[in-house]
Design a protein that fits this description.
The complex is a heterodimer of chains A (1087) and B (123).
Chain A: H1 2-8, H2 11-78, H3 81-103, H4 108-138, H5 141-149, H6 152-229, H7 244-304, E1 306-311, E2 316-319, H8 321-327, H9 331-334, H10 349-360, E3 365-372, E4 378-389, E5 395-404, H11 406-441, H12 445-460, E6 464-469, E7 474-478, H13 482-502, E8 505-511, H14 514-517, E9 525-534, E10 540-549, H15 555-594, E11 598-603, E12 608-611, H16 613-618, H17 632-642, H18 646-657, E13 665-671, E14 677-688, E15 691-701, H19 703-739, H20 744-776, E16 784-787, H21 788-799, E17 806-811, E18 817-820, H22 822-838, E19 845-853, E20 856-863, H23 870-873, H24 886-891, H25 897-907, E21 911-917, E22 921-929, H26 933-943, E23 954-958, H27 962-974, E24 978-982, H28 985-994, E25 999-1003, H29 1012-1021, E26 1030-1034, H30 1041-1044, E27 1049-1052, H31 1057-1074
Parallel strand pairs in A: 17-19, 23-24, 23-25, 25-26, 26-27
Antiparallel strand pairs in A: 1-2, 1-5, 3-4, 4-5, 6-7, 6-10, 8-9, 9-10, 11-12, 11-15, 13-14, 14-15, 16-18, 17-24, 19-20, 20-22, 21-22
Chain B: E1 2-7, H1 11-21, E2 27-32, H2 35-44, E3 49-53, H3 61-67, H4 70-75, E4 78-82, H5 87-96, E5 100-103, H6 108-122
Parallel strand pairs in B: 1-2, 1-3, 3-4, 4-5
Helix pairs in contact in B: 1-6, 2-3
Classes of the chains: A alpha+beta (1087), B alpha/beta (123).
């Protein structure tokens, strides 16, 4: 970049720059040198001054010192005061000079002298001199001598010596300085000389360089000019300069280039001229040669073809011999005649006009043409006509070339005819092939019929047709509406078939119906061709009927069609066969897929050829699909790993598939861990014509049998155990009674035990048989509408006298109508209640509640007994399962009760369950669907106090007549009360303390110990219950007047239940409104 | 004085066996109504015969035997009383250490004879 830039600067500017820089350099170095020399000279002068000054000072010092000593000695010697005065003056002078000396720039040695001098001066001035003065005044010359001999003079003498030395040294120094100054001047001269020499050198160098820059291109230019002059190619590289030279260079280069270009052009033109000349010569040569060629060609042409020349008017002006040979006209008969002499057979006048037009525009016409020879025979000529144009582009003559192609033409025609027949045969063959192919590969009858029909229509050009497969009534129709044909087939099938069974094919000629007549004016005839397809047994398989309008059938066609029908017969039979096989196959597949057993067929290589659905589900293997082959390696692992007995399974498969196994073998395996499936598999080798083709494996799910087996053996062992225990007691105590003598009490006890155990045995057997009957399905249920409330009350009523337990019923089921077998439900309730009593030895109360839940009624039997361990609750409905602890064992039982209950309830569409907390009690519940689910709900609404069950007013009925109790409770429930039943006054009282009742209905005639009055007394005497309204329901008249003021209502039996409910409703409504206890005054029996 | 322990969960059967054996001279009869009670009695007192029911709740006779050490089982004759009369049950009882086996229902007199035999052998 920099170089380029430099190169672009013009030479003038460059020179100017160089001179300027040089001038600047000389000026700067001259000034610098001048100042430097001046400076050096000044420094030298100054040094000299200093040295001179120093020398003078030292000399003066020395002189003053000498003066001091001279005066001192003078004083000592003369003892004159004048001398003393001079001495003091000299001392003062010495002091000033010493100061001057001190101010000088001193070397360390001189500084030492200065200090010594100062010291000496001080001593001398302060001590020695006053001492000397004193001694002199005392005239103590010995003292003075001593004093002068002291050390003080020593330093003085040294200094004096030094001054002398210094003087000489300063002199020599000055000399040295002078010589240094001269030397310096020499050096400066030398530097100045050197500098000017360097500058000169630089200047020369620059000029030389400049010259070279300018000269080189000029020399090159000169060379180029020379070479240009010499006509040689100018080879000049580009000069990358923009200065004067560069531009000159460029200009020269352009000039040279343009000169060269022009020269080249000239050269080229010259060459071209040469080439043209050569070409002309060549052409001339060629022309000559082609002339001779044309001549020989003409000769040849004359030999082979007929050649004629016609004028522009179409008149023959020349004709060679061959024309005469072809046409039979002599040469003279042709020349001078127009071309119309020859009749052109295959060219019409319009075509001729077109040909002439074409020729007149300079075109060439060539074609085959038939003309009539002189003897009248037709001659085929290959004609070529060429117009000849003159210089103005106008036609002045035509050349005609003709070749006789008559013989060729006839061969050609023959060939064409042969070809045509071959083509027809080919088409026929192709169609036949196609038919064969189609009927071979079509397996669908409809498709087959369609294809065949299409084929026939195409091949024999039927206008309308019908193809009917007789058995399947599959028809394909062309040209007639399908439904017409179907109608026809339905109606006339038999007639048609009748004629066809005797005649294989026949043709009917008839006049066309209007549809066939179409727009034809004449009457048209239609030809119906009927033919049948029969099998080997002469059974008609299919019918073909085709109609052609206007033309009949040739013998050839008829026999062809019949041949075709024979082939079609085979195809149709094949179709039937295929369909049968296919149906059979499908049936087989459906059978195999619908059996419960898993089926697997494995060929001799161990490849699975078939697996049915059951097996793929059983072993969770859905890889196989119809027609698939799965090699052993792919399925074996899946199968064996799936089952729990993998190893055995693998061995079983291997063994069963081996060639040597000829008998069937079986094994059992299981699947899964939790819900285990048990499967029995047997393998049978399959043979076809004594050759082993594979092995069939049949897997049968025997889980149910297995479980049943297991259950059965368990049952047998349990039953035997359950029977043996009471049997042991019966037999054992009997034996004891027989073999031992004992007290009558003991005998009685034994007998009682025997009786009890025997009863237990009977119960057990009954229960067991019951259950067996139920499970086997032979138990019949006599379903009838039952009021469950009533049933529950009646069952509870039977336990009233048992004494040990009090059973309380809380009934709030509005709809307790169910359809069940009453006896069975009583059995269930009895069972549940006796269980509750049995398993709650520590408590004496059992609570039964009834309420509606959705569309069912729920019965709960709740005890406060032993309870059931949580993990055993689920098992209790199984046979012989009792709560497994000693406490319950002591209670005894068959262990079948709950199983029977479950069976009964579930058979009647109900549900049963247990909730229990061990040690607190058990609730067994069951629910049954109510009879009129929907209607009950609507009735329910208006009587409801509140939707919330908890807020239903609670009424207690204390009544020992269960039918009356039921009657009242039904009425009260209908009015929206919750009813609690009690029959024991003490229990009722205890209950009243626990539960808030809106009212208590009391019957006066209760048990033996306590009666209704006792209960009322207890209630009224207790502050917790004294405010509960009491309604007396009794057959007795009010007798105990003392209590009557405590009673809200006295109803004398019999009374309508509505009266009780009205009374209670009044009580409750008043209470709900105000919370007060009021005495309703309705009815006439109140006090 | 020899000691017999009767272990059965059924009151009636305990009573039957007790009454059957009550006439034996110089024999003290103890009863236990479940396996746990039986084990405490067996470990605290040496017995000359144990009559053990097979089917008991919570702990079966076999389980009781399983809890006992070999020394005690060798020393004490054990009679398994069971309603499970199959050969398999018998074998199981034998393997567990029961030396005698009495199927239910049994004859009290036969039981008495066998017990007498065992006790006299023991002496």
């Amino acid at each position: 970049m920099i170089n380029n830039k430099l190169a672009d600067v013009s030479i003038k500017t460059k020179y100017f720059r160089i001179i300027f820089i040089l001038f600047l350099a000389i000026m700067l170095s001259g000034i610098g040198l001048f100042f430097y020399i001046n400076n050096q000279q000044d420094k030298l002068k100054h040094d000299r001054g200093v040295l001179q000054h120093k020398t003078e000072t030292i000399n003066e010092l020395a002189a003053t010192l000498n003066d001091v000593f001279f005066r001192a000695r003078g004083y000592v010697a003369l003892k004159s005061d004048g001398e003393l005065k001079l001495l003091n003056a000299a001392l003062t002078g010495l002091d000033g000079i010493l100061e001057q000396y001190s101010a000088l720039n001193l070397s360390p040695e001189e500084a030492q002298y200065r200090d010594d001098l100062k010291l000496f001066y001080e001593q001398y001035k302060t001590k020695t001199l006053p001492e000397a003065i004193r001694l002199v005044e005392n005239d103590d010359y010995t003292g003075i001598r001593n004093l002068s001999q002291g050390g003080s003079t020593q330093a003085l003498n040294e200094f004096l010596a030094y001054t002398k030395e210094f003087k000489s040294s300063s002199d020599s120094k000055l000399n040295a300085m002078a010589s240094q100054s001269i030397k310096q001047a020499d050096t400066f001269t030398f530097i100045a000389f050197g500098l000017s020499a360097v500058l000169l050198l630089f200047f020369t160098l620059m000029i030389w360089r400049m010259l070279r820059v300018v000269l080189d291109p000029i020399v090159k230019l000169e060379e180029a000019t020379n070479s240009l002059a010499a006509g040689e190619a100018v080879l000049l590289g580009k000069l990358h300069k923009q200065d004067e030279i560069g531009r000159l260079y460029e200009a020269f280069l352009n000039m040279a280039r343009s000169i060269q270009d022009k020269e080249e052009e000239l050269m080229m033109q010259n060459e071209e001229l040469h080439a043209q000349q050569d070409e002309l010569q060549d052409q001339q040569f060629k022309l000559e040669r082609s002339l001779s060629e044309i001549e020989s060609m003409m000769k040849a042409l004359n030999q082979t073809s007929a050649v004629a020349i016609l004028s522009n008017k179409g008149v023959f002006t020349y004709a060679n011999d061959n024309i005469s040979v072809y046409t039979g006209y002599k040469n003279a008969e042709i020349i001078g005649y127009t071309f119309r002499l020859f009749e052109l057979h295959n060219i019409s006048d319009t075509q001729l006009e077109q040909i002439i037009r074409k020729l007149s525009t300079g075109g060439v016409w060539s074609d085959e043409s038939q003309i009539v020879a002189k003897d009248g025979s037709a001659v085929w000529l290959q004609l070529t006509v060429m117009p000849y144009l003159n210089d103005e582009g106008q036609i002045y003559q035509y050349i005609l070339i003709a070749n006789n192609i008559t013989s060729m033409k006839s061969v050609q025609q023959e060939l064409a005819e042969t070809l045509k027949s071959t083509e027809q045969t080919t088409i026929m063959l192709e169609l036949n092939n196609q038919l064969n192919h189609e009927i071979t590969y079509t397996l669908d009858k409809q498709e087959f019929a369609e294809k065949f029909s299409r084929f026939m229509n195409r091949l024999y050009s039927f206008d309308s047709s019908l193809f009917l497969l007789v058995k399947d009534k599959i028809s394909v129709v062309k040209g007639v509406p399908q439904e017409n044909v179907e109608r026809y087939i339905d109606a006339n099938n038999k007639d048609m078939l009748y004629r066809m069974s005797t005649e294989k094919s026949y043709i009917v000629k008839r006049t066309g119906v209007p549809r066939e007549q179409g727009i034809s004016a004449k009457e048209v005839y239609c030809y119906d061709f009927y033919t049948t397809v029969v099998n080997a047994e002469d059974e008609i398989l299919a019918i073909f009927c085709g109609t052609r309008i206007g033309h009949s059938f040739t013998e050839e066609e008829i026999s062809e069609i019949q041949g075709m029908m024979n082939r079609v017969a085979l195809a149709i039979e094949r179709l039937f066969m295929y369909e049968e096989i296919e149906n059979g196959r499908k049936l087989n597949r459906d059978i195999v897929n619908n059996v419960n057993e898993g089926i697997q067929f494995v060929n001799t290589e161990g490849v699975i050829q078939h697996i049915n659905k059951a097996l793929s589900q059983l072993l969770d293997y859905d890889v196989w699909a119809e027609g698939m082959l799965i090699p052993k390696e792919q399925w074996m692992d899946h199968f064996t790993l799936r089952v729990n007995e993998s190893e055995e399974m693998g061995q079983f498969y291997q063994k069963a598939m081996s060639e040597h196994s000829v008998d069937s073998s079986t094994m059992k395996y299981s699947l899964g861990k939790e819900a285990m499936k048990h499967v029995d598999v047997y393998a049978i080798p399959v043979f076809r014509r004594e050759a082993r083709v594979g092995t069939l494996f049949v897997h049968r799910d025997i889980t149910r049998e297995y479980e049943l087996d297991l259950m059965k053996s368990e049952l047998v062992s349990t039953v035997s155990h359950e029977l043996r225990t009471p049997l042991s007691s019966v037999l054992g105590f009997t034996e004891l009674l027989l073999s031992k003598t004992m007290k009558p009490e003991k005998q009685l006890k034994y007998l009682e035990t025997i009786h009890k155990e025997a009863k237990r045995l009977t119960e057990l057997i009954n229960d067991f048989l019951d259950l067996q009957r139920m499970e086997s399905g032979t138990q019949l249920y006599n379903a009838e509408p039952v009021n469950l409330s009533e049933t529950v009350l009646s069952v509870i009523d039977q336990y009233k006298l048992s004494g040990t337990h009090h059973i309380l019923l809380e009934d709030e089921a509005l709809n307790a109508e169910v359809e069940v077998d009453k006896d069975k439900i009583i059995q269930v309730l009895t069972n549940l209640l006796s269980n509750a009593i049995k398993f709650s030895p520590g408590s004496n109360e059992i609570k039964v509640t009834l309420h509606n839940e959705r569309d069912s009624v729920m019965v709960r039997v709740q005890d406060h007994g032993l309870g059931i361990p949580k993990n055993q609750i689920g098992q209790l409905f199984q046979k012989f399962r009792r709560v497994d602890n000693s406490a319950s064992k002591r209670i005894g039982g068959t262990g079948l009760g709950l199983a029977i209950c479950k069976e009964i309830i579930e058979k009647q569409k109900g549900m049963i369950g247990i909730d229990s907390v061990e040690g607190e009690g058990t609730t067994v519940w069951f629910s049954l669907p109510v009879l009129h689910a929907e209607s009950s709900r609507h009735e329910e609404e208006p009587h409801k106090w509140s939707a919330d069950k908890e807020q239903k007013p609670n009424v207690m009925i204390v009544e020992d007549d269960y039918s009356l109790s039921l009657l009242l409770s039904e009425e009260l429930k209908g009015k929206g009360f919750r009813v609690t039943h009690h029959y024991h006054p003490q229990k009722a009282f205890d209950q009243a303390l626990k539960t808030p009742f809106v009212a208590i209905v009391v019957d006066l005639m209760l048990g033996e110990e306590l009666d209704g009055w006792d209960l009322i007394r207890m209630l009224k005497n207790d502050p917790r219950t004294e405010n509960v309204p009491i309604v007396i329901s009794s057959a007795l008249d009010k007798e105990d007047k003392s209590m009557m003021d405590k009673v809200q209502k006295y109803l004398t039996k019999p009374y309508p239940p509505g009266e009780l409910s009205n009374t209670l409703q009044d009580i409750v409504q008043i209470e709900l409104k105000t919370g007060e206890v009021l005495f309703p005054d309705s009815g006439g029996t109140e006090q | 004085m020899q000691k017999i322990l009767i272990v059965d969960d059924e009151d009636v059967l305990r009573m039957l066996i007790e009454d059957t054996l009550e006439d034996l001279e110089d024999v003290e009869i103890h009863t236990a109504e479940n396996g746990v009670e039986a084990l405490t009695r067996l470990t605290s007192d040496p017995y000359d015969l144990v009559i053990l029911d097979y089917m008991m709740p919570e702990m079966t006779g076999i389980e009781v035997l399983g809890e006992l050490n070999e020394e005690l089982k060798n020393k004490t004759p054990i009679m398994m009383l069971t309603a499970k009369a199959q050969e398999m049950d018998r074998n199981r009882a034998r393997e567990a250490g029961a030396r005698y086996f009495m199927p239910k229902p049994f004859s009290p007199m036969e039981l008495l004879q066998i017990v007498e035999g065992i006790l006299s052998d023991k002496q």
